[in-house]
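User: Reviewer 2 asked us to show a designed sequence for the structure in our supplementary figure. I'm pasting the structure tokens here. Could you produce the per-position amino acids so we can include them in the response letter?
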């Protein structure tokens, strides 16, 4: 560490970090002052110190409030991590009270699970933690585990293997894949056969592109090579294609049931056994009563509704 680094660190205290976190959250000094029990001039003075310390304006005044600069946005996850670690160090995290907490939680999830969790989790936050908030980030596989390890997420959901052995992980349920088409699809009254699966036009979902989905390796083991006509990054986009065409998708049954009625879709069982979508919940290790609370709330949201 250089001498100039030490000088800057001596100028930085946790009150400044709390104020920076608050302005990033509320974008108004008056709300930060109210939350921290400070005067508005004290918050403004702290912002001047932060600007000098980081050599950046950090926030630009706009009609709707204080707009963070790119530098401020880059600092946000670092500040959040430092304050979380400080809480753990002094043991404050163990006194988490959801009723008064203003914590921002960070959740990772595949696109396939997002629609199933947001509504029940919002209800639970409104009832138990009305001042807390959460961010739901679409992320899968190893990328999600790396984000956990780097304290970019508190909890993540999805399908995982041995990469979660160093974390607290729990298997929630298995969800079999089903075939989904529009309700008035030409094949709606037909029995689903392997021949039909070879003939149907399919849409796959992947943020990485390509025309292979989770199930293709297994399907090909049964001699079924799908005719894929489109790949999209989001399930919502795939649903739009299915609603207005003769294309089909394969997706977990609970997700299909969630959308079938409002979007007039038809979900049907497959004529062969595929490995189900295995849903796990994983959290960072270590004492954190807030994270433990969130773990329980997410688990209940997905298993109880």
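Assistant: Here is a per-position design you can include in the supplement:
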């Amino acid at each position: 560490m250089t001498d100039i680094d030490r000088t800057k660190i001596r100028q930085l205290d946790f009150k400044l970090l709390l104020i920076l976190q608050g302005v990033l959250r509320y974008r108004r000094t008056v709300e930060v002052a109210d939350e921290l029990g400070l005067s508005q001039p004290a918050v403004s003075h702290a912002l001047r110190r932060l600007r000098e310390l980081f050599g950046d304006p950090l926030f630009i005044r706009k009609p709707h409030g204080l707009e963070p600069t790119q530098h401020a946005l880059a600092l946000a996850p670092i500040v959040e991590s430092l304050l979380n670690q400080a809480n753990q160090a002094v043991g404050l995290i163990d006194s988490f009270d959801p009723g008064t907490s203003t914590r921002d939680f960070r959740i990772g999830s595949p696109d396939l699970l997002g629609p199933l969790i947001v509504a029940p989790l919002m209800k639970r936050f409104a009832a138990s933690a009305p001042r807390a908030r959460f961010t739901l980030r679409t992320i899968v596989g190893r990328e999600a585990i790396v984000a956990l390890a780097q304290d970019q997420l508190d909890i993540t959901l999805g399908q995982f293997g041995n990469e979660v052995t160093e974390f607290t992980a729990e298997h929630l349920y298995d969800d079999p894949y089903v075939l989904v088409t529009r309700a008035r699809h030409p094949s709606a009254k037909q029995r689903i056969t392997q021949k039909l699966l070879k003939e149907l036009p399919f849409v796959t979902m992947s943020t990485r592109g390509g025309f292979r989905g989770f199930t293709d390796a297994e399907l090909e083991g049964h001699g079924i090579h799908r005719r894929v006509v489109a790949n999209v990054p989001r399930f919502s986009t795939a649903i739009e294609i299915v609603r207005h065409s003769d294309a089909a998708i394969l997706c977990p049954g609970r997700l299909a049931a969630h959308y079938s009625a409002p979007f007039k879709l038809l979900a049907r069982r497959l004529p062969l056994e595929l490995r189900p979508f295995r849903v796990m919940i994983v959290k960072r290790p270590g004492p954190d009563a807030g994270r433990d609370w969130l773990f329980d709330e997410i688990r209940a949201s997905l298993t109880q509704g």
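For the response letter, you might also mention the following. The chain is about 45% helix and 20% strand. The chain has a mean pLDDT of 90.
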